[in-house]
Amino acid sequence: GKKINVLYAHNDDMAIGASLAAKSLGKQLITTGADGQTPALEAIADKTITATVDAAPYQMGQVAMQVALDTLAGKFKGGWVETTIVIRDSSNVLEVLRKPEVLSPKPSKKY
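User: That's the sequence. What structure does it adopt?
Assistant: Structure tokens below.
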């Protein structure tokens, strides 16, 4: 049979679920997700998953609200609005977990 070593999930919840399922079978996968949700950042810190494509969802919400307000005020001319994307893994996850003011929900503990 074929051995699976790496799993890329469509989102962080799927990555966490897949990693926990693999662990229950006694296997460890390189598991990555996408979104940058607080639970995934904490799962990276505790080595449950390997990485996430951190789309900074809190910042994205702030930017989206500002665009909506600017549109209502007639200030937004349309076009592309970019937000930050960072690959988070064990080398940089603490940078964001140590800034709970930019996360929602807040981390479950202090890092």
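Helices lie at 12-24, 38-45, 57-72, 93-97.
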